[in-house]
């Protein structure tokens, strides 16, 4: 006589009349449906067991017990377990093997990936199925309520949510795996899939609820994953399709791949720092890495992250780490606090915690910043630092051409790429920003559809994006002076124009001729304008700046000099650091404040003064832009000083011929000049500098306006004598 089949065995036959197929799942929908069917089998079986007081029923830890058999739960169990466990085990193993076949052959079955590829236990997997089912179909609310509490729903908790205890009882039907042991705080399940699993405080561990994260549910069900309400802090970085064409740092890119793919030697994970100036290509390098690795790149703004309330920060980190794990995305931290903002110990500790958690839970992470993470930030991770230096003129030229073509821009005849790379030391990011801005301003040609960019448009875009705030240390000088306004000696004007030519052709010499490899240090241009006060040194510098189309900032050395040792160098360093990527001309006025005390003496004060000058010259030599010194003192220029300056240009008091040129050009067209005005006689008798002539002309104009007359010799003689008095030259007289 055949043995009567048990109800659990009959349920298996009912659910799987033809057994479990060995063929891979056709798609994700079929795979999910089959695993949900297995969960339904377990739930039906558990319901039958507890309703009929099956011996295994008294070993259960997570579901309700009937009052009629309650005393049996207190009797020490024999540990026989579920009688049909092996039969259910067969079904589970067949589904698992079918899932493996699907995934190994390239199929899409996200819900089985944790079980096949990761360290998820069988009880973890059942917990996942329960939480997934709860989000999928509301029928499970009543089923879970019945199994966990029956009709007794007086417990002040939503008993429709599946619990750890239910997962343990279901797992026991086909496995000896212990669900409770797998749901500790730092388990895979808690980190990436569940929200708060195993953390119940007011209930036992078996009562802890299983709630699946939205990102996990989206991933398992094939829905598009998004960052939700945290999109303000987190952003997707776009793919980098042209990374081979635009790679400005090939050596650094290879170094990044090696660091990212190397074995992690620390339990704390790996942190890779990409350090460089803004726009130097740090984000581009990270995007190219993600593209090569066929992964997404997510950036997290650290400054924005720390503005969130603590609870939101914890939720964001949990969602973010889960998202990176499921999608294989690379996490990149940006906008890190630095400098004075890191003096706060609390800020350093918070950043340390953030970095450690991200490195531990998200695999190798990237950090982009100008400088390496502050030493006050301690981390358990292995740290690799990659510095992105300045790009060469030839590489910058490639970026100019690429972004011009990308934005539909054609340079006008007065603009060449060689001139651009000579005048402007630009990061790839700034080149892109300048041309995007120009594309908005310009109107496309009706015939070609291209936008013609002239020098004026370029300078406007360049200046608007390159302005730098030097604070009180430097002032932007503006002037419309050109070469016609400048009256210098023939030799001085020749040298100044030669300097302009040198600056405009820097790219050809350094890049095309190959001098950049021979002269990697000091490719900029330094100029010293020396001569008596009022001879036009500032005006000469402004004319040069206008010819080049560059902003010029006046640095008053007398204001930044300090009596404290090292402070002057510190102030100078801040100026050069701020100007590094501004393409600004640095005009150091009143340099006498330093040079007046430059001597060969050996006392401490003299050594202090000499070290200040040496530091200034060192930074001028290293600066890739244009730096100009203006000084009234010429006798203290030793050989070491002259060696470091590109051009030494004397700006002397004008002679009679030069004074006449200045007198003729100083008055505007609308100035009411007396017809009997003898400017030649003034130039012959009045030994004035260029600035004195301008001052005298202005004063004479005020006198004429006060008297209601034209500007004549009487007014000019009075104005000239006033200039003499200011200099203490009371004996000189001008004879009309």
Helix content: 40-55%
Q: What is the averaged pLDDT score?
A: 80
Low-confidence segments, given as residue ranges, are 197-203
Strand content: 5-15%
* Computed structural class: alpha/beta
Give a summary of the structure in a few sentences:
The chain is α/β, with parallel strands linked by helices and 736 residues long. 49% of the residues lie in helices and 9% in strands. Strands 1-3-4-5-2-6 form a six-stranded mixed beta sheet, with helices on both faces. It has a six-stranded mixed beta sheet with strand order 9-11-12-13-10-14.
Give the secondary structure arrangement, pairings included.
Elements: H1 7-15, H2 28-51, H3 85-104, H4 113-117, H5 122-136, H6 139-149, H7 164-171, H8 179-182, H9 188-193, H10 214-220, E1 234-237, H11 243-246, H12 250-261, E2 270-276, H13 282-292, E3 297-301, H14 302-305, H15 310-327, E4 330-334, H16 345-362, E5 365-369, E6 382-388, H17 393-406, E7 409-411, H18 417-423, H19 428-441, E8 451-453, H20 455-466, E9 474-477, H21 490-504, H22 506-512, H23 515-518, E10 525-530, H24 537-548, E11 552-556, H25 557-560, H26 567-579, E12 585-589, H27 592-595, H28 604-622, E13 626-631, H29 639-644, E14 647-650, H30 656-666, H31 679-685, H32 690-707, H33 713-727
Parallel strand pairs: 2-5, 2-6, 3-4, 4-5, 7-8, 10-13, 10-14, 11-12, 12-13
Antiparallel strand pairs: 1-3, 9-11
What can you see in these coordinates?
- The protein is an alpha/beta fold and 736 residues long.
- It has 33 helices and 14 strands.
- The protein has a 6-stranded mixed beta sheet, sandwiched between helices.
- The chain is elongated and about 140 Å long.
- It starts with 6 loop residues before the first helix and ends in a 9-residue tail after the last helix.
- The relative contact order is 0.05.
